[in-house]
Structures are given as structure tokens and as C-alpha cells.
Design goal:
The chain is an alpha/beta fold and about 140 residues long. The chain is built from 3 helices and 8 strands; from the N terminus they run ββββββαββαα.
Length: about 140
């Protein structure tokens, strides 16, 4: 897959039976199968494109990026379905989550919960019946 870079003045981009057609006037300059196009980069002034091409590119996840003649992007046409790339997605579980399989240090939690409660901290050892005796 390769990006398609358009920089010629007066060029029209359209869709013709699953291909991206580049035309100037009535002459077809080139045709590119949409299966092989990764993205469309438009850096020339006076370039126009059809809404059929925009719809087909959005349904296939092919972004159309508009650049200044200096190469700085100023607009991008892309589908909302494909807007979030997998590599930029936030991970579902952190490394400390219980599902990660890594041991966590949770020894401080029970002591924090039990301090300051006289009925727990002053209890004598449990009897054989399983109940603690409170004095």
C-alpha cells in the first residue's frame, strides 16, 4: 500500500469502478486501484475531488489529507469509524489491575482499615468456637 500524492494544478480526482481516477480536463492522467491506496495527499492548488470518491475512501478507511504548498497539513477528510487508530487507543487494563497477572502490594490496606478501631485492635485471640472474646 502506498500514499498517493497529488500536486498538479487543475486536476480532478474521481472514482471509476473501484479505482481512483486522476483527470485533467477530459484526459485521464492515471488510475489507481483503491485497494492499493493507503492515503491521498493533496498539496496542489486548484485540485478538486468528487463526493463519490470521498464516500468510497471513507468506507475503506482511506484518509484524504489537504496540504499547503509548503507541506503543512490544514485539513483531513476521514471516516469517524476509522478515526481512532489501534496504536493510539488507551489500554483497557493498567499493569496493576487484578487481570494483568502481576502481583500487587496490597499489604498496607488491611492495616489502614483496622487502625483506630478499639473493638478490633484490643480483641484477644480467637477461641476454639471461632468467636473472639471482647473485654
Amino acid at each position: 500500500m502506498q500514499p498517493l500524492h497529488i500536486s498538479e494544478f487543475g486536476v480532478f480526482l474521481g472514482k471509476h469502478s473501484g479505482r481512483l481516477a486522476v483527470r485533467k480536463g477530459k484526459e485521464t492522467l492515471s488510475e489507481h486501484p483503491l485497494l492499493l491506496v493507503e492515503q491521498v495527499l493533496v498539496s496542489g492548488r486548484g485540485v478538486s475531488f468528487s463526493t463519490d470518491l470521498v464516500e468510497e475512501c471513507c468506507s475503506r478507511g482511506i484518509p484524504i489529507t489537504l496540504l499547503t504548498p509548503g507541506g503543512k497539513p490544514y485539513a483531513r477528510v476521514a471516516s469517524a469509524r476509522f478515526a481512532q487508530d489501534c496504536s493510539r487507543r488507551r489500554p483497557r487494563f493498567s499493569h496493576d489491575s487484578p487481570l494483568s497477572g502481576r502481583p500487587r502490594d496490597v499489604s498496607h490496606k488491611p492495616t489502614r482499615l483496622l487502625t483506630g478501631r478499639p473493638w478490633i485492635s484490643t480483641a484477644s485471640p480467637a477461641t476454639t468456637s471461632g468467636f473472639a472474646r471482647l473485654d
